[in-house]
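Task 17 of the worksheet. Students: predict the tertiary structure of the chain below and write it out as structure tokens. Keep your answer in the requested format; marks are given for formatting as well as content.
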Amino acid sequence: MSRLNDCLRQFFRSSAAEQSRCFERRRSSRCFSAPLKTFARLLLLAPIVLNGCASTAKTSLDDLQYVDGEKPIHYFKSSNTAIEHPLLDNQTAEAVQVTDAPRSLERRVDDTVREFSLEDAILTALSNNKVVESSALGGVGATRVLSAPDGISSVYDSAIQETGVLFGRRGLEAALSDFDTRWNTSMNWGRDTRTTHQLAPFAPSSETAAFRTGLDKALASGGSVGVFHTWDYLGNTFGSPLYNSSYSGSIGAQVRQPLLAGAGTEFTRVAGPVRPGFGAIAGVSQGVVIARINQDITLADFEIAVRNGMRDIETTYWDLYLAYRLYDTTVATHQSAFQTWREARTKVEVGTLKLADELQARDRFYETRSQLQLALNAVYNSEASLRRMIAMPMNDGTVLRPSTEPSKAELKPDWESCIADGLTKRVELRRQKWEIRSLQLQLDAARSLVRPQLDAVGSYAVNGFGDKLISENGSSGYGSMTGGDNLDSWTMGVEMSMPIGLRQSKSQARNYELQLSKANAILSAQERSIAHDIAISIQDVAAAWAAAESNYNRVQAAEKRVELLQAEREVGTTTLDLVLRAQASLAEAEAAYYRQVINYNKSIMSLNLATGNLLTANGVQLAEGAWETEAYGDARLRAKARTHGIDNPNISAEPKEFASRVNVGTVERRVPAGKNSIPAQPVPAPPGALQAPPAGQVDPALDKAPVDVVK
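Model answer:
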């Protein structure tokens, strides 16, 4: 057997000729039985046939000749996938069309200075942007509009949700369309001719026609009602009919009303009309109420995006303000270093100063020059970032310079007011509460389906029959309907359907119970996170104010030190090295102070964001824009029609409220163990946003308010 394995292994590794010789050598060996010999012959023929086919195809391809001669090949592609571009002739954005080359260290242009306030920046952004821009934190190409355009919020999101038709993201119009009256109609003709055993001068035949029309409408109670009208025509030569041609039809109405599963207005408002054809695909989330809640969730997402956009705009604005301040400080430092170096060079020339001191002054001069160049480029970058955030051209011939001064009054936030604001005004909590309310309604609807499908059905119809459809003598189909022959029919009863065990409906209800539990847990986690955000923001406000005060005192000390050392150097009692170090320390102190002033304003902005007051503090309100004039006319016409409707006192058509224009919740605060300073009662949310106190109401313990440093 080992000899057979060696032969087969060598057989598969060798060429076709060697395989043939190997087979001839082993043909008479005892290790080959009859089946193995047959199998070996097949293995021998397989590569020969395959090789022969391949070589023949290659040869025939090379030898192909056409009657019309050789032509260039146009339809051969060497690859299946390639990068291509869409045939889209889009119009370039106007802000890109009118922009000029950017300013840089190599291209300094004396453009017109444009004083630009924070309110101007916010108004420009809201007026120009249709999508919410975000700051580029990761460098080139890191903005969300480039890296994740499908997730960008825009002014179209609400309308997109409103007009959605797919399951799970249906808008109000799509949900209301389930109750639109549906008209179904059909008309069919036919003829049947056949040979029979009877003797007849012609082959008997029959002609048929069928007409069906009807209106069906879903009801808010979960049932449906419909009217129908049918006619069947029969022209018959088979046998001996009463009429060679006859019309039979009916006109009537039918109704169906669920009694258990899927019954009631509350179920239909949440789940929509029952769709037997879709089953579990539609679920219990296709009703008008869920569509309305999805719309509110979309508005909350848009408000969050706008709020974050305002945060990025304000942050970028203060960064530009800081860049200007640092540039001014660097200019003053560079001028001082230049003056010191020029004086040192003069003294070296007259021999009153060592060359090493002059070189040290020259080193300081070029150091400040480098800092000045970087500070100027930082101004260019910050201005470009602000222009991108508010959708302005990169360069329109003007230079934006912030005119809004940062707040310099001390703010002492109240913890109770801040926590009450945060837990009642944060959009994330409102959005999550909408999710919870939606899941609660869907859970109630899912529990309704954990019951048998029991429907009450009924119908009534008036029938008609005649040899003509319409005639004057009353023997027609319509004549029999309107006559007194009582050709009517009716049905009444119940229909029940129930899967044994109700496994799917029970699983659906359990799934919504788990989703609701998760949503409540997320709400609790969000409240904890907001409380921590507010606490950290309050700490940052206090720390930024204290740091600004300390750096202000540092600036004053550094200024006095420079003045004193310069006076001593003029009389020759100190060295130039100490003066240069003092100048560098003054520059660092001024830069640190400006940074802390800006950090203080950013911390106030973060506190407003944490408490849900950022949009209010910036004077931004979200509201629906104006509709077309025709839309108001249609709405007024429908409202007038509803006022003339007749109320049915036997039907409760008023649904339960699930939304409110004002916040109806309160924030419960309990006294910590061992504390009696906080009243143990609900704290209502105070109106308005956090406002800084007047400039005069500062802490008297401070030496001096930092307001005097920023000119």
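Marker's comment: The two ends are 102 Å apart (CA to CA). Residues 2-56 form one domain.
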